[in-house]
Structures are given as structure tokens and as C-alpha cells.
Design a protein that fits this description.
The chain has 260 residues and is of the alpha+beta class. The protein has five helices and eleven strands; from the N terminus they run βαββαβββββαβββαα. The chain has an eight-stranded mixed sheet. Strands 6-7-8 form a three-stranded antiparallel sheet, covered by helices on one side. It is globular.
Length: 260
């Protein structure tokens, strides 16, 4: 936990892959897993954006995880997560594979970089908040979505009470994302970011969660495994987080192929 931003809060985004309701249900399962881990690990989280699925589950969501070293612990969760199970949405009870992507970036304060996002560099849309409602989301037409035109990066915020506050928070999220990409890719300036997105599909997964024909969660970068999938889905993921941090510090992150 000695990285430049390891001590920072973490912005964690969830995105369902292709596959409709099944993928969206998997996205919500991951959302539940990480919010459970957050609670049991002594961190707090705040919902920034939450887009419900069409029939069930979750299309996309973003949470801010706050606490010391939040980003340091969660940075290794960045990537595509794969689910193998008999789908409850399939009348023929066939085994299906679904994917969801998780993106983790550090919250970076405005004054940490001397660049500005100019008004002509982004498009802003205002939309009606959706999701859990109540104490989580303010259900008014004040939610804000920003699209960074040069890179195509999109951020949204709907948890604040006013459109102005949502725009301010979305701008902060966008800046954090641009700074993180710039530093990760060792780019000279923000303008060099191309915004290339990895597909949320087979071959790019960092971890597999198999419910059928056996139960096993396996991380493909460290080889760490856990057969108690119920506990993992309830937020017991410390073994995976610690294995990643240890392998990263030793320079031993590998490619442990999947048996499936």
C-alpha cells in the first residue's frame, strides 16, 4: 500500500456486459458483494449513480468507497469478472456464462493536477434519477451525465440534491478518471488519452466465479482460490485482495489459466 494514490478514497464503477438480464443480475450480485465487503472492512460507501436493469439486476452503478487505503485495497479488483451458473432466467435451465466489468480509480483532489476541463471538451445531459430511491437517490430531474468528447469517457452522478452539486461531483469523477489514466499510461498530457475500452467478454477476465458444476472462485492473476462461493458473494474477498497485493509487491502477477 505504498502507491501514489493508495491512501485515497476509491471510485468503484460496475458495468454489466452483454447478455441482458443474466448479465445485469450478475452485475448486481457483484455490487452486493463489494458493498458487503466495504461494510465488514470498516469502510463507508456512498452511491453516486445507479441504473437499474430492464427486468432485474443492474445496468451500471458507481460508488465512492471512503476510508484510509480504500483505493490501495480495491485497485486489484479492476477488470472483468466472469460468472458460470445455471441461469434462473432460463426456462431450460442451461448453464450460462456472464461477464461484468469493474473499474476502480482513486479519488483525486482538484489541486493535484494543473489542468482544466474546458466547457467545449464535454457534453452535459440532465436526466431523472433512477434506482433505489429513498435515502439513497434523490428522485428528481437533477441527475447529471458528463461525456468527455476527446476520449468518450462518460461519468454520471445522481446522489446530490441539486443539479449543480451533481455536476460538481461528476466533474470531480471525470478529472479523477483522466488523471488516473494519464498516470497509468505514462502520458505527457491529458490530450493523449485515447479512451480505449477493453471488451467485457471472454479472455479478459481477472476472476471466475463458478456455481455449476462445482463451486469455486479463482483469480487468474494470482491463482488464489476459494470453494466457499456463498461466503465470497457475502463479501469475504480478503484472501483475493491480499494475494493480489502480495503478488504485485513481489512482481509475481501471472496468468493462471481457467480450467473451464
Amino acid at each position: 500500500l505504498t502507491g501514489k494514490y493508495d491512501r485515497n478514497n476509491a471510485l468503484m464503477s460496475f458495468q454489466a456486459g452483454a447478455g441482458g438480464t443474466e448479465a445485469q443480475d450478475w452485475c448486481q450480485m457483484l455490487y452486493r458483494m463489494y458493498t458487503r465487503w466495504t461494510e465488514r472492512s470498516g469502510f463507508d460507501y456512498q452511491i453516486m449513480d445507479y441504473q437499474e436493469g430492464d427486468e432485474a439486476g443492474l445496468k451500471s452503478a458507481t460508488i465512492m468507497v471512503t476510508g484510509e487505503n480504500a483505493y490501495g485495497f480495491l485497485k486489484g479488483e479492476n477488470g472483468v469478472h466472469r460468472l458460470v451458473r445455471v441461469s434462473p432466467f432460463d426456462a431450460n435451465a442451461r448453464r450460462q456464462t456472464s461477464f461484468s466489468a469493474i473499474e476502480v480509480i482513486p479519488e483525486i483532489e482538484d489541486d493535484s493536477e494543473d489542468f482544466e476541463i474546458r466547457p467545449e471538451d464535454y457534453e452535459m445531459q440532465v436526466f431523472r434519477s433512477s434506482g433505489a430511491g429513498g435515502q439513497h437517490i434523490n428522485k428528481t430531474s437533477s441527475a447529471v451525465r458528463l461525456t468527455h468528447i476527446p476520449t468518450g469517457i462518460v461519468v454520471a452522478c445522481q446522489n446530490e440534491r441539486s443539479q449543480h452539486q451533481n455536476k460538481e461531483m461528476a466533474m470531480k469523477m471525470l478529472k479523477s478518471k483522466l488523471v488516473e489514466i494519464k498516470e497509468r499510461e505514462h502520458l505527457e498530457k491529458i490530450e493523449d488519452i485515447k479512451g480505449v475500452q477493453k471488451e467485457i467478454t471472454w479472455g479478459s477476465q481477472i476472476r471466475s466465479y463458478v456455481f455449476m458444476p462445482y463451486t469455486l472462485v479463482k483469480d487468474h492473476r494470482t491463482g488464489c482460490e476459494n470453494g466457499n462461493i456463498g461466503a465470497v458473494m457475502d463479501g469475504d474477498i480478503d484472501s483475493f485482495i491480499n494475494a493480489y497485493l502480495k503478488a504485485e509487491s513481489l512482481g509475481k502477477l501471472g496468468n493462471y489459466s481457467d480450467d473451464e
